[in-house]
Prior knowledge:
Immunoglobulin-like, single chain, 6-stranded mixed beta sheet, alpha+beta
Amino acid sequence: xxxILPIILPLxxxxxxxxxxxxxxxxxxxxQPSPEINLADFNSVxxxxxxxxxxxxxxxPGETIQTTVRLRNVSQQTQRIVTETTDYVIGADGKTPxxxxxxxxxxxxxxxxSWMTVSPTQTTLAPNQIGQFDVVIQVPKNALPGGHxxxxxxxxxxGQNGGKNGQPIQTQGTSAxxxxxxxxxxxxxxxxxxxEAFIRSFTAPSxxxxxxxPFTYKVENLSDVHITPQASIVVKNLFGGVVDTIAVEQxxxxxxxxxxxxxxxxxxxGFGPYxxxxxxxxxxxxKMVRASLMFWMIPYKLILAALVVLAALLAIGIAVRRHIEHxxxxxxxxxxxxEERIKxxxxxxxxxx
Length: 353
């Protein structure tokens, strides 16, 4: 037994260290910090658009359409509001509207603000009062088919914006974050609309120890109108069995812009290669783009720990077997010695007779 202990103790120590390290890293990967909410921020909000945007308005060239937007004064003071319309473009992130001037918007085929009339352009709202604004959109007869985009901006005109040095206040958890809020307006002019999109990238870690597995992909929209893909990712194992089907959040992609999407495979345990198939349907005519990738899920720490344990058990088995064989050899030798001694005694008795 003393010969076995020097073999067993180092192996058990290695198993303990691997298991402790694995437990720590697994807990760290799945711990998310709790978001902090500062209640004082909510006192800074002045205006809130209701709803935050108007979508899917359709019109024919030469047609006039109407809609309404509403605005709530959520501050504790009476506010004087100035309302205007402006065109916008999408920022580099593919999702943030960036207002532009009329001169900048003139050459753009997506311009809409010049077609719009909003009434009233100035109003006063008491605390918690909701104001309604009528929007008339006169589509020119020569309007290009496809999407046209603008934003209705409501601005606090009395300077009481609650910020320091007249700067807007950013808050969390609300749809309105400053004294200037906007309602996005989308108008699709009917006609021969070109729809085309591409998957520019589809990535995931090439191998992971455990899930969840993050996926990231980018879709470029080269259509005449914004698209809202209903994308999904199907993950299959080595044998072609479906492991999971992930429905990705539906988000708008504006014309001639690229937007990034992220999602995760919420599978913790797995082993071997997996393939992920991305399908992105878009448009009104059932068009679709696809991409795929391969990744490996290998819990190498558990495998290493299992191998160490197996090696330890094997070493113990060999040591025990050798010990038993050694004892058997000793017993055999003792028996042989005793048998020889008995023969000697028998021979001595015979010689005495």
